[in-house]
Here is the input.
Amino acid sequence: MKPINTFILFITATSIIATLTLAAGCSKQSTTETKGVAPSTVTPQTSTQSGNPAPGKTLSKLGDLTAFRALAADVAAIVEKGDLAGAKTRIKDLEVAWDSAEAGLKPRAADDWHVVDKAIDKALSALRAAAPNASDCRQTMADLLKTIDSMSSRS
Amino acid sequence: MNNATTTGVLSLSQLLNKVPEVTLAFWIVKIMSTTVGETGADFLAVNAGLGQGVTRAIMGALLTIALFMQLRARRYVPWIYWLTVVLVSVVGTQITDALTDGLGVSLYLSTTVFAAGLAIIFALWYRLERTLSIRTIVTRRRELFYWAAVLCTFALGTAAGDLATEALGLGFKWGAVIFGAMIVFTLIAWRIGANAVLGFWIAYILTRPFGAALGDLLTQANTYGGLGLGATWTSAIFLTVIVILVTFAQVNSGKVTPAKAIA
Here is the structure.
């Protein structure tokens, strides 16, 4: 293949990809609207649960975490029942869901994403310990739910 | 027996070049192997439940085997070469991830270190070989330089791409557009006379975050602005394209045209 043909083909391919990307980008603008706002560095765990944050407070941009919260709540409920093996199985669904949404969620608010990610990691380690400790599991799950709620209350 | 003397115009060194011609197919496979490598490693670590540690060990071992086969091969063998690239892509990504997530190294630091590492590899390569040509990978030492540089570009591409996501909040849509535009810019610069070897390596770095963004665009759910194909379908499609292109290259690898070899 001649270099010039390669060049033209490459330009064409890249243009198609770029157009496709822009089209996908235009259909979903809400995530970019809040770009440039620094994520909150304080975690207002004592803040009200109303959807009305105080003026001046920076909002979390992670968006809708309902699906992840529901999975976490489910795991926590299984832990409460004392079924640590069952909880270990169930938390994998949360891990897979969270992991596969990383590319979509993380750019919205990387700092907040890391906070939730770390909380999930702790819960995973507690449940996957060689000899899982019931109170550790309960504690890490409670912390995880609190972390998710602190994000949701700000969105 | 088809040796150098029977092929006339071809010199021995050209016959033994161990890396492929840089064509459109080359870049397509290179970009897609980034996505497949990453989703493959993710699948083993998360879905198959092996965890990051075991997955790293497996990928490291597979890369060692592939690299060994690549170094042992007497000429360019498409499937071995591309298998090595996919595995280097995985391991390069894992090195950056291990530094970031495991050791808490900042992406600014890792980006700087990998950029410096790459510069050192090129400096040593040039100092010893007096060329950085990717068309004359004809000695063991040049081949080792080549793969060291490739590994470094994948680690650098991962760190720089993640940095763009973390620091600039650059999502995969804008990532694909911006990295794609930078690739086109590099291509244009090369066409109007910029150094070909430099252009190749810049494109090699840029195609890593571009490939990742493109993969995310296809895999991510509609909610996040992706096309919602999911990792399985995206990997299946990309893998099919890779297999077709590499098979094509494999079938054609015996037939070297004089025009190409001289160029």
